[in-house]
Each structure stands twice: as C-alpha cells, then as structure tokens.
C-alpha cells in the first residue's frame, strides 16, 4: 500500500477512536473500553480488506492498478 493511503487510513482509525471516545465519555468502565476497542478493530478490518482488494485481488482479476501521479 502506498504511504499516503496508509497515512490516511491510520488517520481515519485514530479519528474513529477519538469520536467513539467522545461519544462514550459519559459511560465509564469496561463497557466503554470494549466498545472503543471494537470500533478500532472494525476500522482495522476494513483497512485490511481494502489492502487485500487493492493489492491482491484487483491485479489478478482486472490487471495492474493505474499509476497515480
């Protein structure tokens, strides 16, 4: 994966964690921590699937990805 795309996806992951943290600020304890962790894991799974699609599945089915300049 290219560096700018990786940085963008990691930034989205961090933003998701911050938003969920703000939404759950009133809820304390283990439940809020578990919900934030699940949200972060969901974003990481989406990043992994996007990476798999772009780097492994796409070239095999439709040829190489176009170069971005």
Give helix and strand order, one letter per element, not per position. Answer: HH
Instruction: Compute the CA-based radius of gyration.
Output: 16 Å
Secondary structural class? mainly alpha
Helix content: over 70%
Beta-strand fraction estimate? under 5%
Number of domains: 1
Report how far the terminal alpha carbons are from each other.
15 Å
> Helical region count?
2
Instruction: Give the uncertain stretches in residue-range form.
Output: none
Strand tally is 0
Mean pLDDT, all residues: 70
Largest sheet: none
Sum up the overall morphology in one term: elongated
Overview of the structural elements:
- Helices cover 78% and strands 0% of the residues.
- The protein has 69 residues and is mostly helical.
- The protein has one domain.
- The longest helix is centred in the middle third of the chain and has 33 residues, at 30-62.
- The model has no long low-confidence stretch (mean pLDDT 70).
Question: Which helices and strands appear, and what pairs or packs with what?
Answer:
Blueprint: H1 3-23, H2 30-62
Helix pairs in contact: 1-2
For this entry, give a set of tags:
69 residues, mainly alpha
């Amino acid at each position: 994966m290219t560096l700018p795309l990786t940085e963008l996806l990691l930034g989205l992951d961090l933003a998701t964690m911050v938003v969920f943290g703000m939404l759950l600020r009133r809820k304390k304890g283990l439940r809020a921590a578990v919900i934030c962790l699940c949200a972060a894991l969901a974003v990481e799974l989406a990043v992994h699937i996007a990476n798999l699609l772009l780097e492994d599945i796409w070239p095999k089915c439709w040829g190489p990805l176009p170069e971005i300049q």
